[in-house]
Amino acid sequence: MAKGDPGGTTRSRRPAPRSKKGAAGNPELVQLLTPDGERIDSATGPDGTEYRVDFTDEEYRGLYRDLVMVRKLDAEATALQRQGELGLWASLLGQEAAQVGSGRALRSQDMAFPTYREHGVLYCRGIDPIMPLGLFRGVDQGGWDPNEFKFNMYTIVIGAQTLHATGYAMGITMDGKIGTDDGEAAIAYFGDGATSQGDVNEAFVWASVFNAPLVFFCQNNQYAISEPLERQTRVPLYQRAAGFGFPGVRVDGNDVLASYAVTRTALDNSRHGQGPSLIEAYTYRMGAHTTSDDPTRYRIASEVESWQAKDPITRVKAFLEKQQIADAAFFAEVDEQARRESVHLRERVLNMPNPEPVTMFDNVYPNGSPLLDEQRATFNRYMESFEGSAH
Fold first, then answer.
1. Rounded to the nearest 10 degrees, how much is the dihedral formed by the CA atoms of 94, 99, 105, 109?
2. Catalytic residues
3. pTM of this structure
4. In this predicted structure, what is the pLDDT of residue 363?
5. Which end of the chain is more exposed for a tag (fewer CB within 10 A), N or C?
C-alpha cells in the first residue's frame, strides 16, 4: 500500500531519475512513468500545477503487488462467469493503474462512489474482494457497509452515482468538514460514456455552484460499450470542466504513479475548500465491456495490440527492474500470492449459500408495507405449490 504526504509525495531512499517534464509527444497528458518504464521527475498540468511522487522502494513494490493482485482476481471473476458461476462481470482489464493509483490516493476519511467496475478501488479500500462477486452471483446485494469502508455500493445505472456523490460532498461542506489537512473529500468514478448522461452534467452544475469538495474521476477507456469516443465529444473530456467553472486535467491512466499524484492533489484541493475538479484518466479497456459483450465486432485487433504495449503492469515491472528495486524472486512471489488468492476466491464463491427466494422481500421498506406483505404471502403460496411435486 502506498502512502504519501499531502500533494502525493513521499521521501524515497534513492534519488529521483533525471528526466524531462511532461509526457513525450503529448503535452496535455500528465505522465510520470513511460510505457517502457522510464521515470519522469515531474509533470505539469494544463493549469500549471506540478505533479511528482517519490515513494520508498517498499511503496513502489506495494503498488506493483496491488496491480498484479487486482488483475488476477478480476481474471478469476471473468472465468467464473464464463463457467456459469456468475450472472455477469464487468472486467477492469487494462484499467488497473487508474484504479489503484486513485484508490491509494484516497485518505481514510474520503468517500468513494463507484460504478460497477471499480474492483481495484474496492480492493484498495480494504473490502473483501468476494463482496462484488456475491452481487453478480445474485446471492446478495453487494453487502458491504459504505460508512465503514468509505466506499459506496456499486451503481449499475449509468452516471447516477455522480449525483449521489455531489449530494454527499455538499453535506461535507454543510458539516464544516473542509478547510484543513484533516478535511474530507469525495470522489465519483464513471466512464467516458457516462459523460453523455444528463445525471453527470447535472452533477457538474451542482458541484460547481455549491463548491462541493468532489473529484470527478472519468476513466476514459475509449468506448461506451461499442460507441467510440469520437461519437461522444468534439474536445478532450477534461476540457469540459472549464464550461462548468472548475479545473480539469488529463492523466495517463495506465501510469499508476501519475494517477496517484493527480488524484491526491485534486482531493487535497477539495478538502481545503477549493471545490470540485475533473480528472480524465486516459486508458483503455483491453477486454469486453462486460461478459455479455463481443468487442471484436466494433474494434480492430491492431488497436488492442497498440494499447497492450502500454500495459500498466508491464511498465511498473520494467521500472522496478531498471531501478533494481525488485528482482525475479519478488516477481515470482507476487505471482504466487496472486494465484493463491484467486484460487481461494474461487473456492469461496462456489461455496456461497443460495438465498431463500422469499428473502427478496426483506429490507425493501424500513417499516414494512401492507402491499409488500400481500405480495410475500402470494409468493409463499406459489412456492408451496411445488412442495411434494415431482418437478
1. -170
2. 285, 289, 298
3. 0.89
4. 82
5. C
